Amino acid sequence: MTSARVIDLVSRMTPDEKLGQLQIIFRPRPDDAAALVRRGLGAVFWPRSSAATNALQRVAVEETRLGIPLLVGLDVVHGQRTIAPVPLAQAATFDPPLVEALAALAAAEARSGGATMTFSPMVDVSRDPRWGRVVEGFGEDVHLTATMGRAMVRGYQGDDLSAPGAIAATVKHFVAYGQPEGGRDYNAVDASPHRLRNVHLESFRAAVDAGAAAVMASFNTVAGVPMHANHTLLTGVLKEEWGFAGVVVGDADGVRNLLPHRVAADLADAVRLAYDAGLDIEMGGAPWDLDPADLAVIDPARLDDAVARVLSLKEALGVFDTPYVDEHAEITTPDAASRALARRAAARATVLLRNDGTLPLKAPRHLLLTGPYAESTDHLGAWTQSFGAPAGSIADALRERLPQTEVRVAGGTGFFDGSDDDISAARAAAQECDVVVVCVGEPSTLTGEAASRSDLRLPGRQEDLIRAVAGTGIPIVVVLENGRPLVVADWIDDVSAVLEAWQAAAAIVDVLLGAVNPAGRLPMSFPRSVGQVPIDYAHETTGRPATVRGSLAAESQDIGLHGPDNVQEKFTSKYLDLDLGPQFAFGHGTGYATFAHAAPQLSRPTITLGELEAGGTLTVSVEVANTAERAGDEVVQVYVEDLVASIAPPVRRLVAFDRRTLDPDETHRFSFALGREQLGFWLTDAATARFVVEPGVFRLHVGSTLESTQAVELVVE
Ligand code: BGC
Known about the structure:
Blueprint: H1 4-12, H2 15-21, E1 23-26, H3 30-39, E2 43-45, H4 50-63, E3 71-74, H5 87-92, H6 96-112, E4 117-118, H7 142-157, E5 168-174, H8 193-209, E6 214-217, E7 221-222, E8 225-226, H9 231-241, E9 247-249, H10 267-277, E10 282-283, H11 300-317, H12 336-349, E11 351-355, E12 366-370, H13 394-401, E13 406-409, H14 420-430, E14 435-441, H15 462-470, E15 476-481, E16 497-500, H16 508-513, H17 553-557, E17 595-597, E18 601-602, E19 606-607, H18 609-613, E20 618-626, E21 632-642, E22 653-662, E23 667-674, H19 676-679, E24 681-684, E25 689-692, E26 696-703, E27 710-716
Helix pairs in contact: 3-4, 6-7, 6-12, 7-8, 14-15
The chain binds beta-D-glucopyranose (BGC).
Beta-D-glucopyranose (BGC) binds near residues 119, 172 and 252.
């Protein structure tokens, strides 16, 4: 419902004032910014202090005819002052309340400086680690992405956008941006209605349901139609079908980009297409660059609708009544509690990929630290504003925590370079130590926007370094700091333990020393080779699944424990030169404790379609015992396998998960409610999309990773 204030304002605005409200200008210089606001600019991308932001708001409120305050937008992606792990690492925590708490902290810090809107969360499901932006999202899985996206929206917005600690969330990038051809950023997407509905749209639907204030259009085309000109998806699905009453924001220069996309002949055409499609705020200033004679390109009713949406958001944010923030209350430095939260998140995000018992380290006398991250203090990851403070180095932390150990550093290589001599020196140093910790990965410049890679191995000579020290026979621990799944096939079998720490280093030393027991799980599969990409566990089964002697066809595909030597048939879906499946599947991760799972149980073996339609649920549960001598977290995952459906279903699909700490000898029954949402899928044809549950047998796979699930069958009648 549009308020009386907004209706009144819209009725009094000139066309030029209306256009001003529909643009956000990116990082203007302070002098330019004031002039733009005097001219009527409604929104600004403005990474500045509370004093500078208040000063700019004052221009809007006091020096413009209608005194409409500004929207102040920023990419607060994983923290403002307190830098949390990158979103992909947050997904690896499998801990939505933690993600919500991190977003609430980011919102409080950002709003205290005057920002009112963040361009986050990114909920683009992606199965292509070549795409550098996977670091900004929650990985390959629809349910995990939807769950984390919802949690972030709740964290940013709370219950009341006008509260001092709340900012408007912008869910991005709508839609299918995570599936660019060849993994190359901005590239074309050709997604069927089936793929759109069952994969790409779901996480946006969840975030919109959670009340997200804004949605950002993506740079890609979908089936030839650039998203900034895509009426079917922006208006048809988002605004009309889902009833989204918030604001559709364009991505940076996305409207101008309609020219090189070759769907617009000139800027006026581009602006017309975008507003006809359903855009509300353009990012970059294209409307103001139009010839005044062309301003009428935007349909008057559409123009008023867009302006009303923007003003309604400002009203919800409370900025009409309270445009300024208290400069004394600006949070400029993280306090102890914020730092502890970020550190807890980093600890929960680490994924122990493999361990032969070398970890946790047992007070070695001589420890060698090598690799480009050994002494680096750049552990913040892609997408931080200039506000975050650098972290300490792993070398310093280890020296402090292991006073009895001689901690030597022989850098070995940089990220991209390294001489044979440097590598030999690291190898020689390794021979004099009891254990080697190799800190390798990607620098943050290799991840994020416009950072696609065609090779997923460690860059430069880092693999040479690992192989050189591994050849000594000394136990080797590899710590990975990276923002995407990597191909690790050429060295993984030569080392004792591998810890995936993402771009979130705060907790590495705690995990190495055993103060933290790692229990993160992979939010994206690690391929064996870049040639397998795109790759995900939830793929459809083919008509000719590669089978492994003596096992069930569909089960072997997604797990990847078996080599082509075992594969039974020639004319099956596989690569001749690769083992089946990924190196590490989605959901993989181990730890220092061990758990015993009883057989999963259903509260009832059957349920009717009628009961499901009426909101009925059943429970699947499993009893889990900690059989270790130390406390640890278990992450129980529930996957659905639909045995026969009217479309080829995914081999398995995550529908629920829970992470919980169990003390030694403690037993806990993990329980999950399953209903229509978990058992159904979208049926699409050219004109319609319907969410359906079909009768039949469903196998529920429950366990701590895909490799270790146990199944129970449910019949839907
Ligand atoms: C990115 C968006 C981001 C915007 C503003 C664009 O290039 O695609 O994700 O929010 O810039 O920084």
